[in-house]
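sry for the spam today, last one i promise. struct tokens for design, 296 residues
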């Protein structure tokens, strides 16, 4: 890893969030698990977010190809990583290929600093060849209480990569009280709207975004032959007001940090007369009323 990027503010009592940017070894569970545990042991975060499919790599063309590198959500591998989180008092969000019976899911797990599994998310919007490999997520968009050091907790929602394109994901979790939305990712697109959209998600819902993207490249076997997938990087942490607090380049093998105040996400009021959620509810009620009137 290169020198860490530390962009802390001066506020006391904040939560230190870190987003990992690295290149997982393709099809090497043992090496990736060791790397994840090493990063946990040497980080300074309260909550550390890893990229999508951090334990397996990304490029798979079929369930048969991916299955040897998929693990159970409560299996030995996750338990070993949880033990590392506990010994270092670091909470984590980790993307991995999940095996559930005969089915495979593109999943992320939230693990408290106590080593307890706080929650599991399965990617709902599968991208490109993921549709050939994984099943669509079945767990909805829950928000979890994740314990961090000093007996504190944060409310964390999770999305995975392509989920970012759908605003209802972040909105639903914000309505459930999410303070931080963690987004493990393997972005291969070069759209200029990525960070602008993530900033809008944070701003519209007054939540903190922790976007952890990988770097490097992998070769994907397609019907037309081999396709090189190059991953974008540019991991970042975005404050509830849409401000980018910390951001990495397209090639840095590093961790970006920022100190955030999660309690400032609680009130959605922006002045004496406007509340983001109350005003949205009024609009929704008006739409329903108009639809009922049209049916009469």
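last one done:
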């Amino acid at each position: 890893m290169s020198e860490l990027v530390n962009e802390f503010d001066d506020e006391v009592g904040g939560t230190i969030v870190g987003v990992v940017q690295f290149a997982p070894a393709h099809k090497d569970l043992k090496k990736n698990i060791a790397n994840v545990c090493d990063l946990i042991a040497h980080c300074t975060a309260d909550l550390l977010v890893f990229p999508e499919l951090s334990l397996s790599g990304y490029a798979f063309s079929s369930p048969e190809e991916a299955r040897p590198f998929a693990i159970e959500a409560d299996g030995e591998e996750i338990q070993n990583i949880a033990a590392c989180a506990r010994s270092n008092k670091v909470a984590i969000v980790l993307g991995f290929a999940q095996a559930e019976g005969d089915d495979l899911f593109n999943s992320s797990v939230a693990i408290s600093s106590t080593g307890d599994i706080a929650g599991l998310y399965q990617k709902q919007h599968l991208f490109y060849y993921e549709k050939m490999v994984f099943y669509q997520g079945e767990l909805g968009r829950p928000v979890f209480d994740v314990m961090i050091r000093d007996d504190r907790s944060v409310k964390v929602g999770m999305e995975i990569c392509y989920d970012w394109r759908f605003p209802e994901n972040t909105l639903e979790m914000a309505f459930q009280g999410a303070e931080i939305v963690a987004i493990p990712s393997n972005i291969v697109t070069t759209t200029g709207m990525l960070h602008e959209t993530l900033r809008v998600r944070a701003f519209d819902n007054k939540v903190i975004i922790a976007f952890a993207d990988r770097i490097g490249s992998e070769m994907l076997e397609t019907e037309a032959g081999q396709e090189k997938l190059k991953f974008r990087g540019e991991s970042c942490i975005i404050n509830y007001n849409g401000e980018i607090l910390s951001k990495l380049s397209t090639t840095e093998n590093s961790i970006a940090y920022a100190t955030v105040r999660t309690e400032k996400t609680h009130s959605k009021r922006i002045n004496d007369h406007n509340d983001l959620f109350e005003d949205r509810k009024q609009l929704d009620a008006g739409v329903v009323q108009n639809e009922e009137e049209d049916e009469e």
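The mean pLDDT is 93. ok im logging off now
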